[in-house]
Amino acid sequence: MMHWNSKKLVPYALITPYFLLYLLFSLFPILFSLTLSFTSWDGITTKTFVGFKNYIQIFTKDPLFYKSILNTMLIIVITIPLEIVFGLLLAVFLKDFFGKSRSVFQLINFFPYITTPVAIGIIFQIMFDWKTGTVNLIVEKLGGHAVNWLGTATPARIVVIIIAAWVSYGYKMVLFLSGLSTIPEELYESAKIDGAKWIHSFFYITLPMLKPIMIFVVITSIINGFKLFDEPQLLFQTASQPIGGPDHAAMTVVIRYYEVAFQNFQFGYGSAIAYSLFIIIAIFSFLSLKVMNRGEEA
Amino acid sequence: MNTIVKVPVYLFVAVLSLLALIPFYMMIVMGTYVSEDLYTGLKLLPGNYLIQNFKSIMEQNFFLFYWNSLYVSVLNTFGAVFISALTGFAFAKYNFKGKKTLYYFILGTLMIPAQLGLIGFVVEMRTLGLANTLYPLIIGGLANAFGVFWMTQYISGSVPNEIIESGRLDGCSDLGIFFRIVVPVIRPAVITLFLLFFLWSWNNYLTPLVLINKESLYTIPLAISTLGSEYRTDYSARILALAIATIPILILFGFGSKHLIRGLVGGSIKG
To answer: What are phi and psi of A49, to 5 degrees?
Structure first.
């Protein structure tokens, strides 16, 4: 279709830097980690091939792995709906009810997403401090009892969930705004002429038209949710709590991975954890894609 | 729209915006107090210890960490945006054998979490003698699948074949076409990717954490989290350091957020 096809090598030259860098610094480490997952290795002494032993141990004899998977899934199951509801409502409200002031509110609500996780860990540690934190001061003023947020299991989980949802609802808002802008205005106008109220347009036009972006948001949220590490790690580190929080209540899979690989130097076992996580992510992404597409056929 | 609907809508937006701002406000206020005062009740107004906190940050080499972060983020971001655009251009505007397969391969890698190869990457960098240098942080994310996916969609949607064709008739080379025709047209997409990549690189914590253990090479997230345990008493100085580390990103996004949203709209995420 284009006459410069004769210069056949040009496109290959253009994509070479990408693939070269990908092979060297992404694919090679990924495959290398795969081979490591079948060994027992501390990174220094000689590797010993152990076959599937690491994987067998992960799935049959590692209660902390299961705990970290369950923790992470619990966090995901609660935060993703929260982020979607807040992000979507905010996007729709800003688009439909706000004029020029809209960009200011967009920016403000995007702030948490762009803040260094280190800062978030430290700020929330201070705000949720048992003795002096703002949150407990407010709780006591309202007549409640101070909660040891970061030192007991369930409150620690709640704080991590609050942080995770707070950090990324703004990012979801931006994604939904971009999705909203692709919906033709005529649809809303003709609905209005037919006498539809705002709420009807929302349920019968906006939501169905946002379906592709919704699928994108859910899948990427699941993948990103399983990668949660920075904020809980730094939250409990600055609060002088054990890694993964009290009683491992907020130990995510990646925190477990970090502990095994880079604190205990079990490179082989750590690699096997990473691959186990990858298998689980793949299954969940596939399942949620199936479920959401079934909704379309119905 | 009647007021009965508008009130809860405005309330919702106001409350969320407030919740988004409170931690930042507290961060700035806390940076102006003596550490001990942070534990004596709620502080709502700035204190008068800003200069002293600033001095102790300087004593802790903070600007070296700032420089390390800037060096890594700028080089990594420019490289990754350039490579994404170049690759996206090839996928959007050329026909070549294996194009579909290669493109789907890139899309497939989007599903792979970055941590999967982290141990392998660390071992590789050690073997190459690059452990405890800043190079792994620069080269690590240069081949970014999201960037390529996004540039491909944006370039196919916004760069008409006709202007490429006419550039060619005028005797422009392929690279000339890329730089003089394509890059100016995709400026919004370039700015958006630049913002996102810069953000991800600036905030990156796990990779430097496992790769760098020489203090003079610390990036900001690493420096603040690690120095934290040594200078535990000096909380307010650390918080001021956090505020200073966050401000450039806030400014960058303050200027760029319009582009960010426009860029995302013009991009692929239509589905």
So the answer is: -75, 130
**Alpha-carbon distance A281 to A252, whole Å?**
14
Do the Cβ atoms of B168 and A4 come within 8 Å?
yes
One DSSP character per residue, A146-179 reads: ---TTTSHHHHHHHHHHHHHHHHHHHHHHHHHHH
Distance of alpha carbon A52 from its chain centroid, rounded? 29
- pLDDT band at B263; cut points 50, 70, 90: low
Say if residues A154 and A71 touch (Cβ distance below 8 Å): no
Flag whether residue B176 sits within 8 Å of chain A, measured between CB atoms.
Answer: no
Phi, psi of A131 (to 5 degrees): -85, -40
Taking only the tens place, the pLDDT of each residue in B18-49 is 999 988 888 888 888 877 776 666 667 877 77
Residues B101-157 have pLDDT tens digits of 999 999 889 888 888 999 999 999 999 999 899 999 999 989 999 999 989 988 998
Q: Does B230 touch chain A (CB under 8 A)?
A: no
CB contact (8 A) between residue B26 and residue A123:
yes
**Is the distance from CB of B194 to CB of B249 less than 8 angstroms?**
no
pTM of the full predicted structure? Answer: 0.89
Eight-state DSSP code of residue B35: G
Q: Confirm if A254 and A276 have CB atoms less than 8 A apart.
A: no
- Interface contacts (A, B; CB < 8 Å): 275
Sign of CA dihedral A125, A129, A134, A135: positive
A245 to chain B nearest CA, in Å?
16
Please indicate whether, in this complex, the C-beta atoms of B265 and A124 are within 8 angstroms of each other.
no
